[in-house]
Every structure is written in C-alpha cells, then in structure tokens.
Amino acid sequence: MSDRIDHAKRALRADLRERRQMQSESARAQAAHGLRRQLDELLEQLDAHSISCFLSTPSEPGTREFIDAAVGRGIRVLLPITRADGLLDWAVAVAGGDVTAGLTGSPEPVGEVLGPIAVNDVDLLLVPAAAVDRTGMRLGWGRGYFDKTLGSMEKCPPVYAVVFDSEFVDEVPRDVHDQPVTGIVTPTRTVTFSTSAPR
C-alpha cells in the first residue's frame, strides 16, 4: 500500500470514528431499530436462512437486536471470532449467549468454535465497515479480517456492509487487496450496487 493511500485511509477512519463517538444514546437506539427493519427486509428479499453477522460495539450501527430476532425466528447466524493469524473463526449465535472481548477488543461470542470455512455455507454476509462508496468499495478499520475472508471464498454469497447513513460516501481510498461489497444497509435504507461491479 502506498503511503498516500495509507495516510488517506487513516485520516478518514479517524474522522468517522470521532463522528460515531459523538452520537447520542437515543440516536444510537433509533438507528438500531431502523437497522433491524432494513436487515429483516433484506433477509426476506434474499430468502436467507443462514447468515453471518457481527456483534456491534457501542459506537457501531447496532446489530444485536437484529441478531436476537433472527435467532428467535430460526435463522442460523454465524458470528466472527478473530484469530492471531488474521483469519476469522465462527460460532453459531444463541439467544442470550455469552460474549467476550476478542483480539481487537470487539465483542465476540463464547461457544463452540467453527473453522474459517464454516462461513462458506451462508446465504448472506453482513460485515462491518468504516465507510462504503458509490461503486461498492468498502473501507474497513484496517485490520484486514473481512478483506481476507471475502478474498478467500470460492463462491461468495451477497455481501452487505452495515454502516450509518453518513458513511455512504462518494469515494473511499482503495488498494489492491480491498474487497467491494454487493450493497449497504443503513438505518434508513438498503442499497444494492450494480451487478456489473466487481465482486
């Protein structure tokens, strides 16, 4: 990665992180309710019965309400567990399941650990992001876990990044290893990018 691209990514991530931390509790709760509605509609639209998602941190778009409801409806939800080698293991979400801090400090499930290939069986991947641009290019938080996962999948299902509305931007800095997404889900809308975009 060039120094110019790396600097641009760091600057944008710092700005986005600060904006997230300035949100009020009521704004976060409202966003979580809206996000659940959008994600429920996406599941129905794609007829997804097995998905991957992530346990949100307090500053991220809230996924926990959606995950609990999906598990309650019989959807199989895989949650990521970080590994020291940069790959992701997975665990099946359970209602009221225990949570611990992962290698990056983010919440992760406690339970039977499935290997990295477990995610190959899902109908839909919901991934975190710092921002996504209008071409579907995703800017992650710099650790590369999801870029590696997406780049290694033989037959990738639809991938939607979960972001706040303000994080759908005109352009993000990109490098060769960065992976585009199929669409985004925000608290107010779902956007699917052109099928001609690279996946």
**Secondary-structure arrangement, i.e. CATH architecture:** 3-Layer(aba) Sandwich
Query: How many DSSP E strands?
Result: 12
**Count of runs of 4 or more consecutive helical residues:** 4
SS strand fraction: 15-25%
Taken in chain order, the helices and strands follow as HHEHEEEEEEEHEEEE
Shape: globular
CATH topology: Rossmann fold
Average pLDDT score: 90
Number of domains: 1
Distance between the termini: 20 Å
Family: Belongs to the 5-formyltetrahydrofolate cyclo-ligase family.
InterPro entries: FTHF_cligase (IPR002698), FTHF_cligase-like_sf (IPR024185), NagB/RpiA_transferase-like (IPR037171)
Cofactor: Mg(2+)
Organism: Microbacterium wangchenii
Features:
4 helices, FTHF_cligase, 199 residues, alpha/beta, seven-stranded mixed β-sheet, Rossmann fold, nucleotide-binding
Overview of the molecule:
The protein is of the alpha/beta class and 199 residues long. It has a single domain (3-192), classed as Rossmann fold. Helices cover 29% and strands 22% of the residues. The chain is built from four helices and twelve strands. It has helices spanning 3-21, 25-46, 64-72, 145-152, and strands at residues 50-52, 76-82, 88-92, 99-101, 107-109, 124-128, 131-133, 138-139, 159-162, 168-169, 183-185, 190-192. The strands form three sheets. The chain has a seven-stranded mixed beta sheet with strand order 3-2-1-6-9-11-12. It has a three-stranded mixed beta sheet with strand order 8-7-10, covered by helices on one side. A two-stranded antiparallel ribbon has the order 4-5. Helix 2 (25-46) packs parallel to helix 3 (64-72). The longest helix is centred in the first third of the chain and has 22 residues, at 25-46. The protein is globular. The chain starts with a helix and ends in a 7-residue tail after the last strand. The mean pLDDT is 90.
